[in-house]
From TrEMBL:
Protein name (database record): CDGSH iron-sulfur domain-containing protein 2
Cofactor(s) demanded: [2Fe-2S] cluster
Compartment(s): Endoplasmic reticulum membrane; Mitochondrion outer membrane
Membrane topology classification: Single-pass membrane protein
GO molecular function: 2 iron, 2 sulfur cluster binding; metal ion binding
Description of how the protein assembles with itself and partners: Homodimer.
One Pfam assignment: zf-CDGSH
GO cellular component: endoplasmic reticulum membrane; mitochondrial outer membrane
GO annotation terms (biological process): autophagy of mitochondrion; regulation of autophagy
Domain Iron-binding zinc finger CDGSH type: 81-120
Length: 135
């Protein structure tokens, strides 16, 4: 029953429907179509565009799903990770790491959230490490 309905639509109703369309004989004929004729063509052109997109979609490059975007756009991009060390004489602890990716749950102290951020985005941001200078 379903196949008979589909067969009837394709064999009889679709050709009758397409005969009503103002398809010109030449490419130049499209320039002579009226606004009403263009409006009648829009549903068919929309369906053809959708079918064309669905046909080529598997061949389009896949975009990497990113929840985050790059933070570091130009600083030391040649390095796999940007890390700066600064000697500070008055630090209470030996080493302190400060977050520069803004993802740390213990902000401003680094909790190494930049590692996951760098994997997701291809960024190279790292912590600011302050070291107590030992004399």
């Amino acid at each position: 029953m379903v196949l008979e309905t589909i067969s009837r639509i394709i064999k009889t109703q679709l050709p009758a429907y397409l005969k009503k369309f103002p398809l010109p004989e030449t490419v130049g004929g499209f320039a002579r179509l009226t606004v009403l004729e263009w409006l009648r063509l829009l549903p068919l052109l929309g369906i053809l565009a959708l079918l064309g997109y669905l046909t080529i979609r598997p061949f389009l490059p896949k975009k990497k799903k990113q929840k985050d975007s790059l933070i570091n756009l130009k600083i030391q991009k040649e390095n796999p990770k940007v890390v700066n060390e600064i000697d500070i004489e008055d630090l209470k602890s030996t080493n302190v790491c400060y977050c520069r990716c803004w993802r740390s749950k213990t902000f401003p102290v680094c909790d190494k959230s930049h590692i996951k951020h760098n994997e997701l985005t291809g960024d190279n941001v790292g912590p600011l490490i302050l070291k107590k200078k030992i004399l």
